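Quality-control log, excerpt.
Job 1 of 2 completed; input and output follow.
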Amino acid sequence: MRTINHAHLVTAQFGPQAAAYVTSTVHATGEDLEHLAALAKNGPPTARILDLGCGGGHVSFHMAPYAGQLVAYDMSIDMLNAVSRTAADKGLRNIITRQGVAEKLPFPDRTFDMVVSRFTAHHWQDFAAGLREARRVLTNGGQAVFIDVTAPESPLCDTHLQTIELLRDMSHVRNYTATKWLQTLRVAGLEPGATTTRRLRLDFESWVTRMRTPAPLVQAIRTLQLQMPGEVVEYLELEEDGSFKIDCTTFETA
């Protein structure tokens, strides 16, 4: 049987989709990005910011104009190359890229004034280790902000959400509940502050196309959706074409 490790699976999944994530409307827009830009704007102009799991670079592009230096960090070299090209096109010369995993950051202690992670924690192999590393590289008095899909507290709804997420993207580990997020942040030494949850609509066709989900798995998702219990249909606000809504939460540290 052919086996590959999770890190290789993540890079294999996202590398070919780098350009799609740079242009993805879901990833490139949102009130959360505007909020991050405002946080950077209100901070010191010399601040060093880490975009942890930068993906298509949208956090970097929104925050870099107000930072001294911004490090876009990701596992995928294809993503990082796409970010570098786009940053150059935008004239954002203070963005640099580094490759690596969240659970072992190649930076000294207290390197960054702000650590930001958006839509990446659900791919980490070790959620707690990633948060500990974020705390380690954060300066005393610095701020961390984490944005991700949050799982419903209902085990029934959670099971269905994780199943369609994994069928769509085999590099998916899991979405965590808000309760789990707050607990793990505290254990990592990060004191939770403001928390904001927003509903995000995912258009089914673009959702699976962006990840190049194989047709049999797309069909499996649709088959599961058609058999979901009423509680799950209601939570996801499931539409006839398979489009649905999820909770996305911003966790700021105090």
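Job 2 of 2 completed; input and output follow.
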Amino acid sequence: MKINLDIVRSVLRNALGRDSFVGSFVKRVEEDPNCATACITADGRMQYAPKFVGRYVTSEEDLFCLVMHELMHPMFGHFVHGAGELENVAADMVINASISQLFARASGEGSLFKKFYEPHGIHGLLRPMSRMRDSRYDSLYDAFYSYGRRHDKWLSTGEVIQTLKVLTPTVDVHAVVLLGSHGATGGKDGEASAGVSLQGLSAEDLGRMAEDLKKAVKRNLGPNAGYSMNLYELFFDALKTHLSIKKALLQKFATRQKVDNFRNTMHHARVCVSPIPIHPSKRDLVLLSAGIVPFHYRNRATGVTTKKQGLAVYLDVSGSVNEHLPEIIGVLQSLRTDLTTMFLFSNQVVEVPFHSLLQGAVKTTYGTDFNCIANSIFERALDKAVVLTDGYACLKPELQDELKRRKVRMMTVLFGGKQDCPEFEPIGDVVQLEDVTH
């Protein structure tokens, strides 16, 4: 099969949607005999080994497997696990299972992986329909390819790595040739040359990729298509760390009382004089109806300006939300250029630099109440605020009444399963995190 840019984009768009970001991410395709299999760089350049493609990539399903394998690595954060041989095998096991099952139609149920890897031993972990029964890898393989079954706990990539360290002799790992690039250093067995990887992708690009994949899986398969439910949960849990809150929604809650780098787009009407009637004013229309042709028309136009404002974002850091904080901080990462500070609350409010929050610096008193948020809003004379919380806290009625009296507008974003927040519902919108991310 001859690979070119048009074919790569067509394969991706057919699977993920005609207007998908992933479908247009690859911008250049070229042969490279020095590339062991294939790789994609952060600027969208795809390189492939002609001998490898000529032997194994014979259909669009094979090509989908190849391209998606590379694009999926940053979705699961696999670069953070290092570029060791066992780490690479574990990462590829998770990726290949996701492509084979969650994108079964587009990938031909992992057609490329079935061609490239033997159906037994450690190679069998990297493909569907392997013969793993009664082998030392049986249980690990079953955790990802047990169609329709749910284990008590799904395995993360890190846990797969630890399991392989127990199960795998060194000689087995050396024998595995991997697809794509693995880490930023040169290496053998399918690793890319120095600097050739997707490690440098921006948070914005990762977020757009994650949204594409999320929509595609939900649209094409749904949650009950017969594949491993553990894999489905692992896949969506990985995507959550790259999604972000919609900025268009946040713009409605920007406040002048807090100055960050958040830019709110403002539309305003203006009048410009021109001899041509592009959008004539009412005065011009009256003159024209009276048979009088104006020397100059006062055309109406809409101007667009941006105003630097801020977002008063209150993040729940009480003990009950600890397990959700990595997901929430991942969602907030896309705002790192817009926000200078965040308000963390438990039963008191602490303002912290936004960059320190992204580095994991969280201060908490472990209790929870919403009273501290109301008092903080009053002290800072805020007219708008955004609250991210699991919703398990209380607010004194007199403070709720004062918020309403001051006409404070709030958006409460719930995570962790609770469906309502009666404390803040009278003051603004209460939404679920998944409904305001993209």
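Post-run check on job 2. The mean pLDDT is 81.
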